[in-house]
């Protein structure tokens, strides 16, 4: 398993630990310990991971979709984990107009040579491309007319007095596999188990359990108001005092749902989190 060094490491490490794989979260150790004896891991730069998986140096790994596209690596996408969503954009100094961009040959700074070249050619720019190795936003205006870089909120661009010209593509963290590994029966089974565990963790993060006591005459109305994965769990309370009702609901629904349930007559409402949810 190839793990990404840098910005997305902590979220991947948390995913592994929430999946009960017993992962050591020290990203300074390039060969970390994983509690599962069937998995060996190595921490690599995300820029290299897709190609290394295509070559078979690693069976599985995590990297940004931007680097899969940039390297053109032939891998199998197992999951879009949605971690660290960013956009790849072209940006120029705030005072520069579009007419100026097309009136002369421009200097473009980027880490994404392939993505940038395709974009610049499609848009008909006359350009000279310079490869950067970080801090791309610092190049304009003295050392570049345009940058092509990733941005999450756009704040860094604003801080450097840059404006977005085009949004080129969106990216997020992907869990990917080597195609030959997926043809190996034993490896495929293990990989599919990991996908199930990771999906269970992501499901759990998006849902909470609501538990409440319900008077007998309010049961039908409250059960009808409860969203759930299949059907809520209903159990009678001692001496016929009503019912205990449980339902797994989407986390974002609780802000409106809990007041609604209270108005309908539910009492002793509890909300608590899951570790894993397998649907």
How would you sum up this structure, described in words?
The chain has 3 domains: 93 residues, D-Maltodextrin-Binding Protein, domain 2 (3-Layer(aba) Sandwich), CATH 3.40.190; 85 residues, Periplasmic binding protein-like II (D-Maltodextrin-Binding Protein, domain 2, 3-Layer(aba) Sandwich), CATH 3.40.190.10; 67 residues, 2-Layer Sandwich (Alpha-Beta Plaits), CATH 3.30.70. With 279 residues, it is of the alpha+beta class. Helix content is 32%, strand content 29%. The mean pLDDT is 94. It starts with a strand and ends in a 6-residue tail after the last strand. It has a 5-stranded mixed sheet. The radius of gyration is 25 Å and the shape is globular. It contains 9 helices and 14 strands.
């Amino acid at each position: 398993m190839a793990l990404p060094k840098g910005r997305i490491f902590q979220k991947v490490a948390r995913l592994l630990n929430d999946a009960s794989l017993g992962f050591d979260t020290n990203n300074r150790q390039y060969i970390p310990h994983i509690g599962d004896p069937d998995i060996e891991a190595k921490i690599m730069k995300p820029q290299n991971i897709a190609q290394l998986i295509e070559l078979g140096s690693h069976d599985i790994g995590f990297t940004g979709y931007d680097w899969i596209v940039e390297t053109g690596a032939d891998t199998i996408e197992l999951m879009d984990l949605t971690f660290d969503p960013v956009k790849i954009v072209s940006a120029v100094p705030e005072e520069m107009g579009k007419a100026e961009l097309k009136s002369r040959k421009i200097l473009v700074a980027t880490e994404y040579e392939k993505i940038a070249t395709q974009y610049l050619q499609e848009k008909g720019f006359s350009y000279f491309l310079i490869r950067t190795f970080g801090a791309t936003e610092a190049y304009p205006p003295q050392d570049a007319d345009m940058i092509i870089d990733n941005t999450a909120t756009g704040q860094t661009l604003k801080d450097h007095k840059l404006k977005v010209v085009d949004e080129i593509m969106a990216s997020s963290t992907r869990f990917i596999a080597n195609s030959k590994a997926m043809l190996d029966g034993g490896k495929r089974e293990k990989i599919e188990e990991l996908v199930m565990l990771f999906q269970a963790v992501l499901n759990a993060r998006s849902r909470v359990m609501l538990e409440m006591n319900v008077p007998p005459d309010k049961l039908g109305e409250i059960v009808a108001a409860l969203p759930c994965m299949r059907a809520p769990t209903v159990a009678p309370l001692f001496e016929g005092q009503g019912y205990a009702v449980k339902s797994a609901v989407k986390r974002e629904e609780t802000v409106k749902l809990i007041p609604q349930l209270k108005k309908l007559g539910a009492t002793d409402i509890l909300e608590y989190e899951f570790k894993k949810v397998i649907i």
